[in-house]
């Protein structure tokens, strides 16, 4: 029995040793400042950093049995790590021209993108995604991880399933969707057109709305907290079982269906409209003095 146990332990240790062995990566290729670049990592960590050099540099480590690839021309390139399970583990930093059009996929990896200004499409299946960007277009998604974004963009799309969404910045056209994750918005907010959707996730919106803009917040069971900065002018339409509208003026003109409340945020009319609907949650709205 003892001999059999020792054999099993020895067999179990062999693949572990193979997995933990690592390859060092230090590769670079030229790339034009506004070219396209695609990169994929299945598991581990991936950090993408923008810089003012017309080349891609990839450094870090990958597991011994995984395969690294990087190729292309000045007008476009792609790279990544191939393998299965732990054999595809990676810990990489990728430096790209700041204005590169980026397509980044993380699989189960944690992904971060920093100091870029080109259009960005970034996702991870179950890892976290963190973005700090000045891109005009940002699309980011993760199913099981958290999504933390600092970005001011013309077009913004953020999506999770169970992970929380934290966005700081402003966008002319923005949409955030999650199933059970908590949504937090700070900064300039959605200035022209915005939508936030959750099933059970709570929503906290600290921002304004531009003149003539529209913002719709829909949740089945989540609570909604609205904190409007001084100078916000908008019509707020609330449909909720419980609402607490502090510092906003309630009006009955125009008439609204039963269960809804219309309030005026600020003293002037800007044509902006904020619609909030929650079936089981409460809604709280506060304006800064």
Explain how this protein is built.
The protein is 7% helix and 60% strand. It is built from one helix and 25 strands. It has one helix spanning 2-20, and strands spanning 22-30, 36-40, 43-51, 55-63, 67-73, 76-82, 89-97, 101-105, 110-116, 120-124, 129-133, 137-142, 147-151, 153-160, 165-177, 183-198, 203-206, 214-219, 224-228, 234-239, 242-246, 249-251, 260-265, 273-278, 282-287. Strand 22 and strand 23 form a beta hairpin. 40% of the residues are buried.
Strand content: over 45%
Structural class label: mainly beta
Helix share bin = under 10%
Average pLDDT confidence is 85
Q: Give the SSE order as H and E letters.
A: HEEEEEEEEEEEEEEEEEEEEEEEEE
Global geometry? elongated
Total of DSSP H or I helical runs spanning 4+ residues:
1
Unreliable spans are 1-14, 249-259
What is the number of E strands?
A: 25
Keywords:
60% strand; mainly beta; elongated; 289 residues; 25-stranded mixed β-sheet; 1 helix; single chain; 25 strands
Concise description?
This protein has one helix spanning 2-20; strands at residues 22-30, 36-40, 43-51, 55-63, 67-73, 76-82, 89-97, 101-105, 110-116, 120-124, 129-133, 137-142, 147-151, 153-160, 165-177, 183-198, 203-206, 214-219, 224-228, 234-239, 242-246, 249-251, 260-265, 273-278, 282-287. By secondary structure, the protein is mainly beta. The chain has a 25-stranded mixed sheet that branches.
């Amino acid at each position: 029995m003892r001999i059999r146990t020792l054999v099993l332990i020895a067999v179990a240790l062999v693949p572990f040793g193979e997995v933990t062995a690592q390859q060092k990566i230090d590769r670079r290729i030229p790339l034009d400042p506004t070219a396209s670049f695609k990169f994929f990592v299945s598991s581990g960590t991936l950090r993408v950093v923008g810089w003012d050099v017309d080349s891609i540099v990839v450094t870090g480590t990958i597991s011994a049995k995984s395969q690294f690839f990087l190729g292309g021309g000045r007008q476009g390139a792609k790279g990544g790590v191939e393998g299965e399970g732990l054999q595809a583990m990676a810990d990489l930093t990728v430096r790209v021209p700041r204005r590169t059009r980026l397509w980044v996929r993380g699989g189960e990896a944690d992904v971060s993108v920093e100091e870029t200004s080109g259009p960005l499409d970034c996702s991870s299946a179950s890892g976290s995604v963190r973005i700090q960007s000045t891109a005009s277009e940002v699309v980011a998604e993760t199913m099981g991880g958290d999504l933390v974004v600092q970005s001011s963009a013309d077009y913004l799309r953020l999506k999770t399933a169970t992970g929380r969404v934290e966005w700081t910045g402003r966008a002319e056209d923005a949409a955030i969707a999650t199933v059970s994750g908590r949504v937090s918005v700070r900064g300039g907010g959605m200035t022209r057109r915005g939508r936030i959707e959750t099933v059970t996730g709570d929503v906290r919106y600290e921002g304004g709305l531009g003149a003539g803009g529209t913002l719709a917040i829909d949740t089945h069971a989540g609570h909604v907290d609205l904190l409007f900065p001084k100078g916000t002018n908008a019509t707020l339409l609330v449909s909720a079982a419980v609402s607490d509208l502090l510092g906003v003026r309630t009006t009955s003109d125009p008439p609204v269906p039963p269960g809804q409340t219309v309030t005026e945020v600020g003293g002037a009319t800007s044509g902006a409209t904020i619609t909030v609907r929650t079936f089981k949650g409460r809604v709280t709205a506060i304006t800064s003095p």
